[in-house]
Write the structure tokens for this entry.
Amino acid sequence: MKNEFEKLDTFMREHRPESSTSRSAPTSRSHFGWHLPVGITACLVAIFVTVFQVQQRQQELDLEAIAMMETLEWEMSDETLADVTDLVAIVD
Amino acid sequence: VFILKSEEAFKTLYASESRGVQRFLEGMVGGRQVAEELTQDAFLKAWKSLPSFALKSSLKTWVYSVAINTARDWLRGHVHRATLELKDEHTAEGELQSPETRAVREALNELNEEIRALLMLHYYEDLDLKEIATILEIPVGTVKSRLFAAKGKLRPLLLAKGFDV
């Protein structure tokens, strides 16, 4: 039996519209949009600032310790200083 | 299923089916830009709902099922907009499309969305009756009879535009 829509079938298949898909596969990033890169940058900045602050605090503590040592040494009598020096020598 | 869930598998599926899905969605909603967005939505939905994909059909038919539901959802709230966009697009792309292709798109747009979906899946996406039945969730016999009726509605529209079909 002849297909009564044969000409229509041929016509439709010959004039298939082409799609212009050119996008890459969607990822979770399409949902995050600009939030993701901004978030990562903010985290990196926060880590950098924290490390910098810790280093600075450590430096301050070192300076304080040096100042304290100098004060103690200045206040120590010659005898005490000799004892401390001996003690340090034993510990070393 | 575990392998299919990998990102690589998703990219492969997108690469092989996105053109067809987008063409299908373009025909359904009428606008290229909207179709692009809906294509991405459909793939993401398909991906997220993959656990409910029971391997009863192919991934291709699964993606088209999600795509047609995405188009239906969109059309529910944008019927007038879809018609307008189609007209605008034809004006903008008139030079790029052949008169026959334009006539086909116009004729399809005059049909309701269910008939349009059926004809596009049949003619453009090279899906067999069983696959179309799975996507539209109707029996194969119903696909056959609806397809026959749909062709009966499409032909006079193309004849009226001067094409010997």
